[in-house]
Design a protein that fits this description.
2 strands; 9 helices; two-stranded parallel ribbon; single chain; globular; mainly alpha
Amino acid sequence: MERKPLPIGIEDFKRLIDDKYYFVDKTLMIKELIESQTIVGLFTRPRRFGKDLNMSMIQRFFEKTDESNAYLFDGLKISKYPECMKYQGQYPVISISLKSMKQATFEEAFAVFKDLIRAEILRHKSILFNSAVIEETDLDKLTRFIELKADKSDYNTSIGFLSTLLASAYGKKVVILIDEYDVPLENAFHQDRLSSQVQHNQRKNF
């Protein structure tokens, strides 16, 4: 039996398959997603369960790319369902992880979010800026995001804005994956509690 390396710290599904790491086949969750026809899904699992890897797997399955990723699923459980495999590589995908938004202030965390939006736009830059259906004003707005010059209010709808443009460029609905969405919320909660405790101690000492 072939001895394979353990995928310690590997969160990219493509790298895991290409480099032949051990993999617990969870591809049937893709079948469940397709059959449920869910519009919004929330995946709640314990820590270290492999959520990041699963998100990467979903992205590699649905995302339309210049070079097909269909081979990544050869021999896996999902490959036995042609009615599911017809969805492979057919959609634009927005994939953002908020796990790095652990900064001490809103301004610092917001700067990280701006970089995340910029990186995702750059990942789709070629199709967006070469599309005949994207308006010049929208391209100008994308450029402001790339140059980190967009208004703060623009970031409130940045993911929806990017999704709308990708749907127009591809002529298909967009798959949006947001990983570790709770990190900035939890961090803000703890920072607020810490700030409140500091203020309480200062008043007490005064």
